[in-house]
Structure formats: structure tokens, C-alpha cells
Amino acid sequence: MELAAAQIRTLAQTADKAGRQEILSTLNKLQSEIEDPMEMLMRLSNFNILIAMFRVAVHVQLFQALDKSESLDIDEIAKATGVTSELLTRILRYLASMNVIKENPNGRYTANNITRFFTNSRVQGQVLHGFETNIPVARELFDFLATTNYREITDNKHTPFQKAYNTNLHPFEWFAQNKKRFEHFHEGMAAMASAAWIDVVEVFQKAAEQIPHATPKADEVPFFVDVGGGYGHQSVLVGRLYPNLLHRIVFQDLPQTLDQVSVIEGIEAQAHDFFTPQPIKGAKFYYLRRVMHDWPDADALSILQHLTPSLSTDSRILIDEIVMPDQSAHWHSTMIDLSMMMAFAGKERCAQQWKDLAARSGLRVEGIHTYDAASYASVIVMVSTRQL
């Protein structure tokens, strides 16, 4: 058994992310083949305990305490966290059994790679968002579907979210009135910020490299417009990779979102509702990251239709989203798909669904470039049909 584990460990050390995901998928399938079905029931029962313990650990800063020292005993951790030794013993025993922390033979505990990952404030924001906002929504799903005769959810003001929070507001309207929850939401989004998409979008790379390192002219159109860009995390990453694009990058979001954002040197923040006409005409690239999956088809279509008239003949829309495979999808993407449905009446879309949305908006899909094979994260490049 140890030999087999060592061989798998060696494979994982030399594999890329997609390769590691394939190894994990294979191991998960093997587990389901050899485990007693009762084990599956026990794992199902464990999910609520696991996230509850993560919520406690985040609040008492357990992960930070372990990360600051080589190892700590129960009394030392109790002093650092304010949790009694008796309770802490049970919590640590559980987290160690889940491999979230490491339990040593001498009764001391140390941080492992998972512990260290969860010291990140943005990652902790995702934990808080999941525990405080998403769990109540999931709890309402069954009753909601029963009352709608098990129909697909397509109205974003009639979802389990509204039932969970006794509101008629769209989730984003509700977030605007619940600042702390909105902060957790954006911290979670920031935790997943990445510029990896640029590596596979050659048309963006070539265009960006041609922009001079010089102050743009007064009448120069922005190069990169980050539509629905939240706190500007993606725009910042683009500016770091291509400093020549600074003062040519604009990120847009609603005023209540931008009110939470500090000034970012070289990057303009612009208030804009993407359900209204795009005010910047003829930019080289309009980028939407994890925007479209928040919306049902009718609204997704409206977003594109309000953007399309602003395109020039060499403009492109870059949609950074999951592109679902037609079969054998990984649970990460199927989980996100159902999460979007429960809260927003949104969805993750397959390639044909993206092409259909484009065609109905006066656009065509020029290419789909996958930059993370494990999660199906891709950039769908759309151009105006006026270019044909």
C-alpha cells in the first residue's frame, strides 16, 4: 500500500494542475468503488460539521496561530485563540482527522499546506460567504423546488435566496444593504482572481505588446475595459503584467461597489450599470469575468446587447467563464452551476449555449480558449458580426 501511495505521490509532484486533478478524480472513483456505502452516508453527514468548524477556526484565528509557530500544544493554542483547552482538544482532533492541520505524536499541532492556505484573508472571506450566506440558501432549495413543481429556476427575484432572506430584492440589491456580506462576497471573488487567462489569448497578448510605454493621448480610447469588474482585482493584475497599459485600463461597476474601492494608480474606476448602453466606445477589449454566470439567459442576452453597439470593427469581447463539457463534468463546475441557480437563477454554460447567446446578440464566437483544464475556466472571444 505504501509503495502505491509513493508512486501516486511522485506522479502528483511532476504533474500540472490538470494532471493532479485527473489523479484526484481517479482516486475518488476508486474510493467510491471500494468503500462501504455507509461511508458515503458518513461523508454526507460530515459536510455541515466541516464548514462549521472552518467558521469557528477563522473567527478565533486558529490557522494564523498555528502558522506563526513550528508547533504548539493545547495550552499554547488555547492562549492564542481564547478557546478553552477542553473544547479545543475536540476541535483540533476533528480538524486533524480531516487533514486540515497536522497532529504530532507528542501532543503538539503544526500547520500544513491547507492550514497556511486558509490564513489568507481573501480565502477566509470565501469561507464566511459560504457559511453565512450560501448555507441558508441551500437549506431552502428543497421547499422552493417543491412549491414550483421542480422547474428550472429562471427568475432571479424568485429563487431560494429570496426565500432564505425573506426579501423581494435581487441578491446584489440585498448585498448593497448588507455591507459585511457584500465584503465577504468580494473577498471570495478576489481569492479566485487570476491573470492565467492571458496566457492562452494570443490576440490579447499581441495587441498589448504593441501599446507604447507612453502617456496616452487625451482622446485615446481605453485599451481594456473590465465590465462588472468589482473592486478592480483583474484590472490590477493586467496592469502588473503590462505596465504599458496603465492609464489605458478602466474597470466598471455600480456606484455602491466603487464606493468601497481605494484609488488605484493608473487604473480608472467608472460607475456603470451593464444593463444600460456601454459608455466607452471602440475599446480594444471588453472583459467580463464571472459576470455572465450570475444571470439567466434573458439577462445575459441583455448584457451583451447593451455592449455590442459600442464595438468597433477591431474590438473584442472577452468572457472569462467556465465552459461546461457536454458530459463527464467535474463536481467543482457542477457545484458552481447549482450555486448560481440557487442564488441568482444563473448558470454555467456549454460551448453551444455561449454560441447561441452570441448569435442572438449580433456577435459570433471567434474562439474558446481554455486556460484551466481542471475547472474548464476559459475565455470566450466574441466579435461583432459587422466584421464579417
UniProtKB/TrEMBL annotation:
<dbReference type="InterPro" id="IPR036390">
    <property type="entry name" value="WH_DNA-bd_sf"/>
</dbReference>
<dbReference type="Pfam" id="PF00891">
    <property type="entry name" value="Methyltransf_2"/>
</dbReference>
<dbReference type="GO" id="GO:0046983">
    <property type="term" value="F:protein dimerization activity"/>
</dbReference>
<feature type="domain" description="O-methyltransferase dimerisation">
    <location>
        <begin position="44"/>
        <end position="120"/>
    </location>
</feature>
<protein>
    <submittedName>
        <fullName>Uncharacterized protein</fullName>
    </submittedName>
</protein>
<keyword id="KW-0489">Methyltransferase</keyword>
<dbReference type="GO" id="GO:0008171">
    <property type="term" value="F:O-methyltransferase activity"/>
</dbReference>
<dbReference type="GO" id="GO:0032259">
    <property type="term" value="P:methylation"/>
</dbReference>
<dbReference type="Pfam" id="PF08100">
    <property type="entry name" value="Dimerisation"/>
</dbReference>
<dbReference type="InterPro" id="IPR016461">
    <property type="entry name" value="COMT-like"/>
</dbReference>
<dbReference type="InterPro" id="IPR036388">
    <property type="entry name" value="WH-like_DNA-bd_sf"/>
</dbReference>
<dbReference type="InterPro" id="IPR012967">
    <property type="entry name" value="COMT_dimerisation"/>
</dbReference>
<keyword id="KW-0808">Transferase</keyword>
<dbReference type="InterPro" id="IPR029063">
    <property type="entry name" value="SAM-dependent_MTases_sf"/>
</dbReference>
<dbReference type="InterPro" id="IPR001077">
    <property type="entry name" value="COMT_C"/>
</dbReference>
<feature type="active site" description="Proton acceptor">
    <location>
        <position position="293"/>
    </location>
</feature>
<feature type="domain" description="O-methyltransferase C-terminal">
    <location>
        <begin position="156"/>
        <end position="363"/>
    </location>
</feature>
<keyword id="KW-0949">S-adenosyl-L-methionine</keyword>
